[in-house]
Design a protein that fits this description.
Strand content: 15-25%
Structural class: alpha/beta
Shape: elongated
Largest sheet: 5 strands, parallel
Order of helices and strands: EHHEHEHEHEHHHHH
CATH topology of the largest domain: Rossmann fold
Strand order of the largest sheet: 2-3-4-1-5
Number of domains: 2
Number of helices: 10
Radius of gyration: 18 Å
Helix content: 40-55%
Distance between the termini: 41 Å
């Protein structure tokens, strides 16, 4: 299979990629917040120009994908079978079913970077949870890397709350409902991650 799906974050997955996909002249890593049509177009151009007599590795790691961008990438994946594609996403449902069906899923890569942080969050009283969330979004002007890191920390908190809800469905009925709501809207353009996490703080 020339296209593979990894579930996890870039930092957790990158060391698990095949050696040839980690670095080299024929390896191209692209990561960021939102994959737009323009971003997808650049990836498609790069894949189309890849030499047929050599293996080119394209590692794609975005927090979100526009549907139109995914459709563009889907066609490129189908047309450039000489290119090795590696998609890294936090959750499967970030990709359309049509593109997921073309990817061979690798073993789940567990994200450990924020384990202590989210464990501490769950143990905090409500007021401290709010202070943690406020500090997470305190800096207004952030670089793209900082925005990505903040979003991943938020996703880690949501995943931890989801795990707690699943551990005891009868006890955490409200948390389960709130987690589903937050999970649905956290990656939506224009959503307020701070407000969504504050909702979880009430029920976690």
């Amino acid at each position: 299979m020339h296209a593979v799906l990894y579930i996890g974050t870039y930092d957790a997955v990158v060391q698990k990629l095949p050696v040839g996909a980690r670095s080299g002249a024929d390896t191209h890593h692209v990561r960021g917040g939102l994959c737009t049509v323009d971003d997808a177009e650049q990836l498609c151009i790069h894949a189309a120009r890849a030499p047929l007599d050599n293996v080119t590795h394209l590692v794609v790691a975005y927090d979100r994908f526009m549907p139109q961008a995914q459709n563009m990438l889907l066609k490129s994946i189908e047309d450039t079978t000489h290119v090795r594609w590696y998609f890294i996403v936090a959750r499967r449902d970030m990709l359309l079913p049509t593109i997921r069906s073309r990817l061979s899923e690798a073993a789940y890569i567990e994200e450990r970077a924020y384990t202590d942080e989210v464990r501490d969050f769950l143990a905090m009283p409500y007021t401290k949870k709010l202070s943690f969330i406020t500090s997470l979004y305190a800096k207004v002007a952030k670089s793209d890397e900082e925005k990505v890191a903040t979003h991943r920390r938020a996703q880690a908190v949501v995943a931890a709350c989801e795990a707690r809800a699943h551990s005891n469905p009868h006890k955490y009925v409200r948390l389960a409902k709130d987690t589903l709501f937050v999970r649905k809207y956290l990656d939506q353009p224009g959503a307020s991650p701070k407000m969504l996490l504050e909702l979880l703080a009430l029920s976690a």
